[in-house]
Write a structure and sequence with these properties.
- This protein is an alpha+beta fold.
- 23% of the residues lie in helices and 35% in strands.
- The protein has two domains: 13-240, P-loop containing nucleotide triphosphate hydrolases (Rossmann fold); 253-364, OB fold (Dihydrolipoamide Acetyltransferase, E2P).
- The protein contains eight helices and 21 strands.
- Strand 11 (255-262) and strand 12 (265-268) form a beta hairpin.
- Helix 2 (109-119) packs across helix 3, helix 2 (109-119) packs parallel to helix 4 and helix 3 crosses helix 4.
- Residues 21-251 form the ABC transporter domain.
- Keywords: ATP-binding, Nucleotide-binding, Transport.
Length: 365
């Protein structure tokens, strides 16, 4: 069954308003292991921020500290300007959606969604109204009497989302909510989540290790590494102007090219590139520059424009574009190049590449 588009939230449901959410110098230790090392993160009301990073970077721990599932070892957690660091999870008025749907298999969709309202002793008549509204928001009208085993993975996850929204929480926390779904459903559902939280104006923290997911859904992204936030910015800022080598390497694909630092930038294979991050490099120092594949231009060997000579190692069709790997004649360095899908290059074909003057991050060698 195809994934339906969610309907517009009803007036009662769309009354949910976002509040400010923040971590202030939060530290979390387990014995001698410090997992969060002074994490500070401020979310404006209604903002959607992704915590992005590899396994073990601390992103899920940060989310659990926000939720109250973990007690902070230092710092403070604020929701709506109120310090909730010592407030238990059931008193924080937040909604959570996990990777595992965690639906009750013996309850219908309607009863799964109503569970939190029952715990809050909401009147039966109002429960029915709010359950219907929440299911309409996620596009599951008519599914009230089905059981979880009768639903697809995407539908089950939308039930979990409805259950989190039905209590009208101050903030919504999502921990890898789409990673168990297949690729097409994952893309459709992330678009629906974005549309829903934007319409409701609910402040949302979304944890993921999937960079494409983070860039597609977020107002801002916090890239985490080793218990710290390496960079916080819009998807465009992170991709185009990475602040550290880790961000440049983790967010998107980059070619690592040797260069020499100058006052005006970094000289890479005879081309002066602007610098987004110097990593404290000084003029004359040898570094590695991170150059995006789309910032490498690829042409035929008889192209009259200046460029670096090389030969094609491989070329792969990726739908809307093609990625070609070129080995430079000068030093054998292999570069990934993204270009139009209709431009086909064969393995072994001589080519020329040029570098676009776009900002690059640097790493000391």
């Amino acid at each position: 069954m195809p994934v339906e588009s969610p309907t517009q939230p009803s007036p009662a449901t769309s009354g949910t308003g976002g509040v400010s959410v923040s971590l202030q110098e939060v530290v979390k230790t387990y014995g001698s292991n410090t997992v969060l090392k002074g994490v500070t993160l401020e979310l404006a009301p209604g903002e959607l921020v992704c915590l992005l990073g590899p396994s073990g970077c601390g992103k899920t721990t940060a989310l659990r500290c926000l939720a109250g599932l973990e007690e902070v070892s230092g710092g403070a957690v604020l929701i709506g300007g109120e310090d909730v660091s010592s407030v238990p999870v059931n008193k924080r008025d937040i909604g959570m959606v996990f990777q595992a749907y965690s639906l009750f298999p013996h309850l219908t969709v309607a009863k799964n969604v109503a569970f939190g309202l029952e715990r809050r002793k909401v009147a039966k008549t109002e429960r029915g109204t709010r359950v219907a509204e929440a299911l309409a928001v996620v596009g599951l009208e008519g599914f009230e009497e089905r059981y979880p085993h009768e639903l697809s993975g995407g539908q089950q996850q939308r039930v979990a989302l409805a259950r989190a929204l039905v209590t009208r929480p101050k903030a919504l926390l999502l921990d890898e909510p789409l990673s168990a779904l297949d690729a097409k459903v994952r893309v459709r559902l992330r678009e629906q989540i974005r549309a829903i939280v934007t319409e409701l104006g609910i402040t949302t923290v979304f944890v993921t290790h999937d960079q494409e997911e983070a860039l597609a859904i977020s107002d801002r992204v916090a890239v985490m590494n080793g218990g710290r936030i390496e960079q916080l910015g819009t998807p465009e800022e992170l991709y185009r102007s990475p602040a550290t080598p880790f961000v440049a390497d983790f967010v998107g694909l980059s070619n690592r090219m040797p260069g020499v630092v100058h006052e005006e930038g970094v000289l890479v294979h005879g081309v002066m590139l602007p610098v987004g991050s110097t990593d404290d490099a000084v003029p004359g120092e040898e570094v590695l520059a991170f150059v995006r594949p789309e910032n490498v231009r690829l042409g035929r060997s008889d192209d009259a424009r200046p460029g670096l000579a090389g030969s094609v190692v491989s070329s792969g069709f990726l739908g809307s574009l093609r990625r070609t790997v070129v080995r430079l004649d000068s030093d054998g360095l292999e570069l990934a190049v993204q270009h139009a899908a209709e431009d086909v290059f064969e393995a072994g074909e001589p080519v020329r590449v040029t570098l676009a003057p776009e900002p690059t991050a640097l790493q000391k060698v």
